[in-house]
Amino acid sequence: MTEARTGAPVVSTDAGPAPLPTVWDVPPKLAPRATVLLLPGRGEDPLVYERFGRRLAADAYPVRVLADPSRRPEEAAAQVRAALAEPGLPGPVVLAGSDAGALFAVGLAASGEVAVDALVLAGLPVQAAVEPQATGWEDELATRTACPTHRGRLAEPGRVAPGALFNPLPREWYERADLSKVTVPVLGLHGTADPVSPLAVVRSAYAAAPHAELVSLADGRHDAFNDISHRTGAATVVLFLERLRQGGGLAPIAVNEQLWP
Question: Which of 7, 33, 55, 132 makes the best surface tag, with the fewest CB within 10 Å?
């Protein structure tokens, strides 16, 4: 991992400058196969995504975790634009997001504010869903993830702002995040037991997209990148990226052959 910032990462609610992106680079002697720009969820420190970032980087897909858009929307958008403007940025370039980051990413792509090659979304909030109320830290952990390791990581000081998940997102974000206006391929990861954004409601949102795939994760909660099925989630993203590299049609690379009639 290469960190573009110094000192211990902390979660801050002030209006100061956003931290520089946190980067997981590919191993030595490997050429990057794409670039993944990731917008975190409400109140999350970038290091929440260390496990996910390391996995993708090991397969030669570097990951940059940017500013939390729920606290610093202008800086988050600026960091996306700055990354896309870099000369020689390895493509294809994928904009990923979790929770508020997913909603913000859809808004950026749907409005034409940024041009990326694909979106990868985890726990996409939808306006029709009823967001749960905060009833305590343990309940919040259970809402975020069923993975005991990830719960332990979230409990570390500075990793997440307690209660942030239950802060309502701006109504205009939902209005901008129109998947029917996103023309690039979209991959959605969503837990079947997500209490923040129920899967049954999310299906209709993805169905409006011209080119979308929605993968549900059994017994998963809201943080589909870091939940109990995090290995399957990361593998699903890598398979999507491999297909994306073959062209916009997302033709299958590996096919289950039918052995019996």
Answer: 7
Name the residue with tokens 């570097």: 62
Which pTM was predicted? 0.91
Q: Token pair of 128, please?
A: 């029709």
Structural domain includes residue 59: yes
In a domain, residue 258? The reply is no
In terms of residue numbers, what domain contains 166?
A: 2-245
Binned at pLDDT 50, 70 and 90, residue 10 comes out as: very low
pLDDT score recorded for residue 12: 40
Please give the tally of structural domains in the chain.
Answer: 1
CATH no. for residue 7? 3.40.50.1820
Q: Is 23 exposed, middle or buried (0-12, 13-18, 19+ CB in 10 A)?
A: middle
